[in-house]
Amino acid sequence: MSGNGWTLSHLDALESEAVHVFREVAGEFERPVILFSGGKDSIVMLHLALKAFAPATVPFSLLHVDTGHNFPEVLAYRDRVVAEHGLRLEVASVQEFIDDGRLRERPDGTRNPLQTLPLLDAIERHRFDAVFGGGRRDEEKARAKERVFSLRDEFGGWDPRRQRPELWQLYNGRHAPGEHVRVFPLSNFTELDVWQYIAREKIELPSIYYAHEREVFARAGMWLAPGEWGGPKEGERVERRLVRYRTVGDMSCTGAVDSDALTIEAVIAEIAASRLTERGATRADDKLSEAAMEDRKREGYF
Amino acid sequence: MTTTSLLRFATAGSVDDGKSTLVGRLLHDSKSVLADQLEAVAHASRNRGQEAPDLALLTDGLRAEREQGITIDVAYRYFATPRRRFILADTPGHVQYTRNMVTGASTAQLAIVLVDARNGVVEQTRRHAAVAALLRVPHLVLAVNKMDLAGYAEPAFAAIADEFTAYAASLGIPEVTAIPISALAGDNVVTPSAHMDWYGGPTVLEHLETVPVVTDPDAEDARFPVQYVIRPQTPAHRDYRGYAGQIASGTFRVGDRVTVLPSGRTSTVSAIDALGTGVDTAFAPQSVTLRLADDLDVSRGDLIAPAATAPVPTQDVAATVCHVADRPLRPGDRVLLKHTTRTVKAIVKDIPSRLTLGDLSHHPHPGELAANDIGRVTLRTAEPLALDPYHRSRRTGAFLLIDPADGTTLTAGMAGDAQAAFAPVAAVADDEGWDF
């Protein structure tokens, strides 16, 4: 709370609102789950859930949709957090779907769009009725239209024209069998809010969010890291650079940015001065078309 | 780290008043639009054969919106200045205007109503002001746009501002801030206009940055809807029993004598946990956990309130509602009523009147409310509800009606005499075929 008595700072207001959303879901749903990728948004989401139910444990399990193209630092972080807080983790594996023929690798090698099917399969298999995502409305134009409680049909689909109006703080979580609700407690956070909140709460992040020397190669205007997912093609030259990540997703389409920000204060200063959005700077999959995100969301993606 | 406050506001305007341009201008001139977003807009504008980047494209996010050049649904935008963070509910002025504006206004602390300086106050303007009054949005701004097309002339602005202010006063809105702008040219949106020396007031952004958002929780009745009961049952917290929730209004202090509704049992607040920290006082809208001195049976849906000012639970609800679903609401309909954290069965007993927002006339017994209609409704609930009148609390006076069959949100409700502002207008006989 700020100095003048009865005002909440913007971070306190956002925190209070997100906690309210977690508790509403805990009160109204049978089988909620938190999508957890080890990225900063899902880490903040989990931190808020831990605060919402303290001193009890979080009454939800975690679900990681594993593309098989992970940053090793992020997987290690995921497993550490799960153990530390005594959480349950489910993993939906894109690789398994490819191995048994239910999914086919794309020619461009990116696996982000392939996450939808394993996600929907896990939701159906575990009968999850509320699925928390770390999506923020500031990320993308289609996400600006997203509700905090977003009803998905039995195919996981999002129809922006048929959304329920969201009035006051009265979230309507009613759904028919087979349908589920996606819930976005960070809806009103911006990228900068997330970083300021991480700083204030002293939340630990995977090390790749801070500047480090790494082998990278240039593709489509981004620095990509070679790894188990594949590496440079002919004509793409690997070099060592000082970089960091603004988002963490599938290695095949998440780019690093040049940076010497070693501390959270330096990261915040860098983001405040950046002239690029985080997706514009680092996500190849959103550059596929003007409506790439909307189209994926309609199919059941976050 | 600097601490900033948060302002939630909504914009309303009819189709060609330049609302998207105003929003685009606010985002652009406050440097909240980044290079890749601008490049995307420039690219899309070129593809359509437009020479200058169309700032309206910054906000039209859906495929259908870009194809048709219209805004379909409420969108939320974010921008910041060193003084304040802003959450903008960008509500389309189109066909479904009323429910969209009601949605945006329900959480807004301020509403901007946009008019075209050449057209002045039109029926749509009156609708927007009436919805802002109905939803009790605390601050109202009239933005008189397209001043560049009205010769930047003071008399044109003054006439519109006077007419609007008088109308707003008749709605019970005490104060309107009127600002002459050109969203297209950028006058008085973020930077003061060089063309309107006669205007001495703030720019739109300056006003957004400085309008007071502090309320005095000590002046409000304290209300705490119980969301969730926290019982760790671990060795370290064997006897912990906390009531988690977000304070809807007012303040709670350790030692307060409280009543739990609807049971009416009383106890004392023994501890307040503010997300990990024990505090002596907490206030709206903090999410906290209250603990009580006595071992009462308290569960989700109950309301904790000071014993002295607790509301009287009732099963008969009279309210003003805005119908938001495509299927109509009729007397006899069986619905669910969601109020704070409590959802109960209810039946629509009567629809005594429908309001015509254009002239604020009441049409008695319309027979039904269709999408976007505003009217009076009486309901009977299966269980007692601890409702406050909406004019006393936007949080504990608000409710939803939900279709029990498929979960559709049907109606936004405001309990009690929320229409006080409209009371002086006499009922008018209906001649539009609504009596059936």
TrEMBL record, chain A:
What would you give as a GO molecular function for this chain, any one?
A: ATP binding
InterPro entries given in the database record: PAPS_reduct_dom, Rossmann-like_a/b/a_fold, SO4_adenylTrfase_ssu, Sulfate_adenylyltrnsfr_sub2
In this protein, which residues make up the domain named Phosphoadenosine phosphosulphate reductase? 32-255
Enzyme superclass (EC): transferase
The protein's matches in Gene3D superfamilies, at most eight in alphabetical order, are given as: HUPs
According to its UniProt record, the EC number is 2.7.7.4
The residue ranges crossing the membrane are: none
Reply yes or no: does the keyword Nucleotidyltransferase apply. yes
Biological process (GO), any one: sulfate assimilation
Keyword annotations for this protein, in alphabetical order, are: ATP-binding, Nucleotide-binding, Nucleotidyltransferase, Transferase
UniProt family annotation: Belongs to the PAPS reductase family. CysD subfamily.
This protein is called: Sulfate adenylyltransferase subunit 2
Instruction: Provide the species name.
Output: Streptomyces albireticuli
Gene, per the UniProt record: cysD
From TrEMBL, chain B:
Keyword annotations of the record:
ATP-binding, GTP-binding, Nucleotide-binding, Nucleotidyltransferase, Transferase
In its UniProt record, which GO terms are filed under biological process? Answer: sulfur compound metabolic process
| Top EC category | transferase
Any idea of its EC number?
A: 2.7.7.4
Looking up Pfam families in the UniProt record yields: GTP-eEF1A_C (PF22594), GTP_EFTU (PF00009)
Gene Ontology molecular function? ATP binding; GTP binding; GTPase activity; sulfate adenylyltransferase (ATP) activity
Query: What's the superkingdom here?
Result: Bacteria
Which part of the chain is the Tr-type G domain?
4-218
Q: What is this protein identified as? A: sulfate adenylyltransferase
Could you tell me which species this protein originates from? Streptomyces albireticuli
What is the organism lineage in this UniProt record?
Bacteria, Bacillati, Actinomycetota, Actinomycetes, Kitasatosporales
Gene from which the chain derives: cysN
